[in-house]
């Protein structure tokens, strides 16, 4: 029987009072709606989130997307739009884009990113373009951009980095090494005190002999 006045039977070719639509009109999609323990058929112009329209000679149906975190799909194995917070990449949904791909925030898609090569070995430890004469310096390593990103707005990873290092030669070969000024001043002061003490002692001895 066709229960036309019943809203649940809208778009149906045949309808059940208890189970809703059984067959849909041409171009509409049959969707089995579940509500608690009850389920009933509906005829829709487009399938709801998480489903895609499957057209068959017998009847068009809404079939569930089998891809995790997919909001709408082209087929059971190819997602066209992911749920909020997920990026679409080759028909799948990801929290973060795979290696070699960058996130395009405005479309929530993964596009080809900037590819960089391997890091070089750490360079020579230096400071002020010198490799000696200091205790600490900096050493640097680099890597090359192998492939530029698909869009100029996508940044490349850093291609150079430096770190603190201890120089192998604190004193340059052939250079004159001088003690720090403070150490030299202390020794000079001590020497002057010793000389003054000896002079005073000599004067004391001379005075003592004269008094005798």
Topology:
Layout: E1 12-16, E2 20-24, E3 29-35, E4 38-44, E5 51-54, E6 61-64, E7 70-75, E8 78-82, E9 87-89, E10 92-94, E11 101-104, E12 109-112, E13 115-116, E14 136-142, E15 145-147, E16 160-166, H1 181-211
Keywords: Developmental protein, Disulfide bond, Glycoprotein, Heparin-binding, Secreted, Sensory transduction, Signal, Wnt signaling pathway
Main location: secreted
Organism: Cisticola juncidis
Characteristic key phrases:
212 residues, alpha+beta, Hormone Receptor, Insulin-like Growth Factor Receptor 1, Chain A domain 2, 3 domains, TSP1_spondin_dom, developmental protein, secreted
Estimate percent helicity. Answer: 10-25%
Order of helices and strands: EEEEEEEEEEEEEEEEH
Number of contiguous helices:
1
Largest sheet: 2 strands, antiparallel
Average pLDDT over all residues: 80
The radius of gyration computed from the alpha-carbon positions, rounded to a whole number of angstroms, is: 43 Å
Arrangement of strands in the largest sheet: 1-2
Q: Write down the overall geometry.
A: rod-shaped
Instruction: Kindly report the oligomeric state of this protein.
Output: single chain
What is the strand content? 35-45%
What structural class results from the helix and strand content?
Answer: alpha+beta
Low-confidence stretches: none
Total domains: 3
Ends apart, CA distance between termini = 151 Å
**How many strand units?**
16
């Amino acid at each position: 029987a066709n229960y036309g006045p019943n809203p649940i039977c809208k778009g149906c070719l045949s309808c059940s009072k208890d189970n809703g639509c059984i067959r849909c009109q041409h171009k509409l999609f049959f969707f089995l709606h579940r509500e608690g323990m009850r389920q009933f058929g509906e005829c829709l112009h487009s399938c709801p989130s998480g489903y895609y329209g499957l057209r068959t000679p017998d009847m068009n149906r809404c079939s569930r997307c089998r891809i995790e975190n997919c909001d709408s799909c082209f087929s059971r194995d190819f997602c066209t739009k992911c749920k909020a917070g997920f990026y679409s990449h080759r028909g799948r949904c990801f929290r973060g884009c795979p290696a070699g791909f960058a996130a395009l925030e405005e479309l929530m898609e993964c596009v080809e990113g900037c590819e960089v090569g391997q890091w070089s070995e750490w360079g020579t430890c230096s400071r002020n373009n010198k490799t000696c004469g200091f205790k600490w310096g900096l050493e640097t390593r680099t890597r090359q951009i192998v492939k530029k990103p698909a869009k100029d707005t996508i940044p490349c990873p850093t291609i150079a980095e430096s770190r603190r290092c201890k120089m192998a030669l604190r004193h340059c070969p052939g250079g004159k090494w001088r003690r720090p000024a403070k150490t030299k001043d202390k020794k000079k002061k001590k020497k002057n005190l010793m000389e003054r003490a000896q002079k005073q002692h000599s004067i004391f001895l001379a005075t003592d002999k004269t008094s005798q």
